[in-house]
Structures are given as C-alpha cells and as structure tokens.
Amino acid sequence: MRIALLADLHANREATEACLAALERERCTHHVFLGDLIGYGADPGWVVDTVRAQVERGAVAVLGNHDQAAIEAPSERMVPEARAAIAWTQGRLDEAQTAFLRALPLQVEEDDRLYVHANAWAPADWSYVSGRAAATRSLEATAQRLTFCGHEHRPALYYAQPGPAGHFEPVSGQPVPLRGSRRWLAIPGACGQPRDGDPAAACAVYDSDDGSLTFLRVPYDHERAAAKIVAAGLPGAFAQRLLTGG
To answer: N or C: which end of the chain has fewer CB within 10 A?
Structure first.
C-alpha cells in the first residue's frame, strides 16, 4: 500500500490541490492528514471539505493545534497574528465543518504506525519535535515502529539508536528504506506553509510493501495563495511566508 502523508495544510487550497495531484501520480491509495487543516490561509472551508471527503473514503485525519483553536479558543501561546487568523477562520466555517474538526482524534494507530500532529509523549501539549532530543522523547513514548507527525513545518527523518536519535536530511524524490531493525519518526514537512526556505509544498509517500519513505516537494502557485491571504485581510506575514518558504 502506498500511503500519502500530508501535514499542516493551513487553509492553502493551491498547495493542497497540487500535493493531492502529485500523490495521485505517485499511485497512493491511502491518505493521512497529520493535522492543522486550517489557520494562516484563505480557504479554510474548502480544505476542511476536501479532507472530510477523503476521510469519508477511508482516509485518516488527526487534530492539530490550529484545528483545536478553531473549535475552542486560541491558546495564549499562539502569537497575536495566528490568533487573528483563527478568529477570521471561525467566521468562515459552517456547523458541519466545525463538527468535523471537533471529531478529529489526537492520534491514530494503524498497524505499526502512529499518526499524530505534534509528538507522541504529550499530543495535546503541542510541543515540537524540533531536534534529536525531542525525537528521542517521542520515539520512547510509543511502541509503534513508525511515527508520522507534522507541526514542525520542516521535513525531517529520525531513527532510534542508543543515545539521541539519529537524523537523516531528506532529499526530495529519493526513497529512504526504513529498515525494520530500527524505529523511525518522520515529519513530511508543511503542505500549506513551508518554513525551510523552499516555497514548494511538502508531502511524502510511505510504501508499506517495500518499507520505503519518499519525501516530495511540489511547486504550486504560491503567489496566488499569498495574494488571496492579502485580499482576505489576513496578516501580511502569512503571505510573505508563502513567497519565501519561511
């Protein structure tokens, strides 16, 4: 089975459409959405409806911190611009879309895989896996062999070993064999708001038959997505991030 992995769509229709098309070309038959469907971008309703339709066809989706903020209240840990985007988003989601977000689980286990937005040790605290120490803590918190998460907005691949987790620097389009003798944590990167200096959308494909993981970067019309953010009256910094990838 070829599994499509998407994280941090952040209401970016153009990036989501481009990634879904790329993953279809990769012959993916199962989709996993690793949280933060909304926030920052100008098309929250479209993205939620698109993911909901995928879930109705058997996809998996988990709750992200921006999704939670939209159905409850923004955390004080969120910067003011992010809270403003959540308030704007709340006024553009209908009852069915809000109900879908409210029903999302914090994490899902599927075979030997864990899907979670932030980390495995405290999914609801929204702490980042931003380096080897945090990756080690997350790997130690689950018995699953593979952990797939988002939240960090930068692609990364870690593996368990004595001491701090080992780290691979992902290269787009190059399959990495996830050897069965190791336990792994992978962050596919942000579909809707990359922050690693590359404006191309990020996603990944896991092949459960041969055990390989392929990170992808997908060019899309980020200028159009940025212009829609400005036109909506959302903070301009969110548009600038799409233009620069950071």
So the answer is: N
Angstrom distance (rounded) from CA 176 to CA 12:
28
**Domains detected in the chain:** 2-244 (3.60.21.10)
Q: Which residue has the tokens 């405290």?
A: 122
- Give me the residue label for tokens 């290269």: 171
**pLDDT interval class at 168 (50, 70, 90):** confident
Look at residues 26, 19, 22 and name the one whose alpha carbon lies nearest to residue 3.
26
- What does the chain look like in DSSP terms, one character per residue? -EEEEEB--TT-HHHHHHHHHHHHHTT--EEEE-S--SSSSS-HHHHHHHHHHHHHTT-EE---HHHHHHHS---TTS-HHHHHHHHHHHTT--HHHHHHHHT--SEEEETTEEEESS-SS-GGGT----SHHHHHHHHHT---SEEE--SS-S-EEEE--SSSPEEE---TT--EE--TTS-EEEE--BSSS--SS--SEEEEEEETTTTEEEEEEE---HHHHHHHHHHTT--HHHHHHHHHT-
pLDDT for position 5: 99
Query: What is the pTM assigned to this prediction?
Result: 0.97
Copy the structure tokens of residue 246.
């950071």
Contact 230, 238 (CB under 8 A): no
